[in-house]
Amino acid sequence: MKWLVSLIACLSLGACAAREPVPERTTATATAQVGIVNHTGNFIYSATVDGSGGGRMSAWGAAVANMCCTSIPRVWHPGMKVLVRWNMPVGTTDVIKEKIVEVEKYDKPGDIYMHFFPNDEIRVVVTNSAGYSQSHPIPPPVEPKEKSGVK
Questions:
Q1: Inter-CA distances, 77 with 24, 59, 113, 138, Å
Q2: Which of 31, 43, 50, 126 has the fewest CB atoms found within 10 Å of its own CB?
Q3: Quick one: where's region Disordered (predicted)?
Q4: Reported CATH class of domain 29-127
Q5: How far apart, in whole angstroms, are the C-alpha atoms of residue 131 and residue 139?
Q6: Quick check: 8 pLDDT over 60?
Q7: What per-residue confidence (pLDDT) applies to 55?
Q8: 117 to 12, 18, 43, 59, 103: CA distances (angstroms)
Q9: Given its phi and psi angles, is residue 74 left (phi above 0), alpha (psi -120 to 50 degrees) or beta?
Q10: 13-46 residue pLDDT tens
Q11: What is the pLDDT of residues 46-105, one digit of tens each?
Q12: Cα dihedral angle (23, 129, 131, 78), rounded to 10 degrees?
């Protein structure tokens, strides 16, 4: 029995000994949620970035990036591009398009947002701010006010 108590005491003291901190393992890529921000008056039925995403967005809509998921480089580099594919139906007819888009410069990893503008203009940003947030790199969409009484 004495040997068991001695063993437990030695193990307990050894557990309290100072240890070198384990270096944090860093990978070249980070996981990112995918978000859509729609600056048009048309419904987006689905949109993906490099095949990830798939959500939909109402006209003039913005939300948090809540579609799983894609990988992005932890460090932005010039010429970084992604393939954006989207379906913006006209009536009951699917209109599927795709475009290679340059990712705008970012300082730290975050979520990836696709911004859709009229005439198939698309911007892609990486940020930790929701698409409707005032701290988002691109201002949120604003639905134009209809001019009443103008002929």
A1: 23, 32, 17, 20
A2: 31
A3: 132-151
A4: mainly beta
A5: 8
A6: no
A7: 87
A8: 64, 57, 12, 11, 15
A9: alpha
A10: 444 444 455 455 678 999 999 999 999 999 999 9
A11: 999 999 988 899 999 999 999 888 999 999 999 999 999 999 999 999 999 999 999 999
A12: -60
Query: Amino acid identity, residue 103?
Result: V
115: CB partners within 8 A, 6+ apart: 37, 39, 122, 123, 124, 125, 131, 138
Q: Average of pLDDT values for 135-151?
A: 80
Task: Record the tokens describing residue 136, joined without a space.
Answer: 């988002």
